[in-house]
TrEMBL record:
InterPro entries: IMP_cyclohydrolase-like, IMP_cyclohydrolase-like_sf
Name of the protein described by the UniProt record: IMP cyclohydrolase
Gene3D superfamilies reported in the protein's UniProt record: Inosine monophosphate cyclohydrolase-like
Pfam family, one: IMP_cyclohyd
Inosine monophosphate cyclohydrolase-like domain segment(s): 15-222
Domain of life: Bacteria
Length: 237
């Protein structure tokens, strides 16, 4: 699989929806993850990311405009020991609770499927980073309908051990804008990761469609110590 430019992938797609990036910094010392949300409706665009404990949650920017919190208010990022969980929905809690009971990432997601937002049936995308005393691996998952058929759920997990420096993988909910929105297809995209946390954050945010982007979270985790830096960018300020 060819290594792609994340900036070009984003700049050439007006509506990838929600996206997760996981990989390793170019110098090989940091585990890297990013999560962004986009929106077309007033309800979806009326959000911000706020820090909560070691993770983040979504919050209504203007509570008076919040019409339906069911699929837009959740904790996208939670930390369980040396594991960082990143998802596009409340399955963050499902994974956290399952792994806390010694279930695997994949086993935890067996109880969930795509979102019930007919006719899109938005895929649930999830990622997990495991950083422990100098070792690092990660996995990505997508739960999606079978070509828009709500009676059939397709489950894919992609695991990456000892990832290479300067690269990562990118998965997002929709192939592009549409009505209904077409679900992501294929393996997560192999992409280049370069720069420090600030330059990486700027590249992603500036590449997202200006009308549709809502919020961005980026974290760099030191693979040796487990310490981390976080950046959050919100269109609504």
């Amino acid at each position: 699989m060819n290594k792609l430019s994340l900036e070009e992938e984003l700049a050439n797609n007006a509506y990838p929806g929600r996206g997760i990036v996981i990989g390793k910094s170019a110098d090989g010392t940091k585990a890297v993850t990013a999560y962004f949300i986009m929106g077309r409706s007033v309800n979806s665009r009326n959000r911000v990311f706020v820090e909560e404990a070691q993770g983040i949650r979504t919050e209504a920017f203007d509570p008076s405009k919040l019409s339906d919190p069911s699929l837009i208010i959740y904790a996208p990022v939670r930390v369980l020991g040396n594991k960082t969980i990143v998802t596009n929905g409340d399955q963050t809690d499902t994974i956290y609770e399952g792994m806390d009971r010694q279930m695997t990432f994949e086993q935890s997601l067996r109880t969930r499927e795509f979102e019930p937002d007919s006719p899109n049936y938005t895929p649930r995308i999830s990622g997990i980073l495991h950083v422990e005393k100098g070792s690092y691996n990660y996995a990505l998952s997508i739960l999606k309908s079978s070509n828009g058929n709500p009676d059939s759920c397709q489950r894919y997990t992609f695991a990456y051990e000892n990832p290479a420096a300067g690269e990562g993988h990118f998965i997002h909910t929709y192939m592009h804008d549409g009505d209904p929105l077409p679900s992501f297809e294929g393996e997560p995209k192999r992409i280049t990761i370069d720069g420090d946390i600030d330059s990486f954050t700027d590249k992603i945010w500036n590449s997202l469609n200006g009308d549709n982007k809502v919020s961005l979270f980026v974290r760099y985790i030191d693979i040796q110590s487990g310490s981390y830096e976080t950046r959050i960018v919100n269109k609504n300020r």
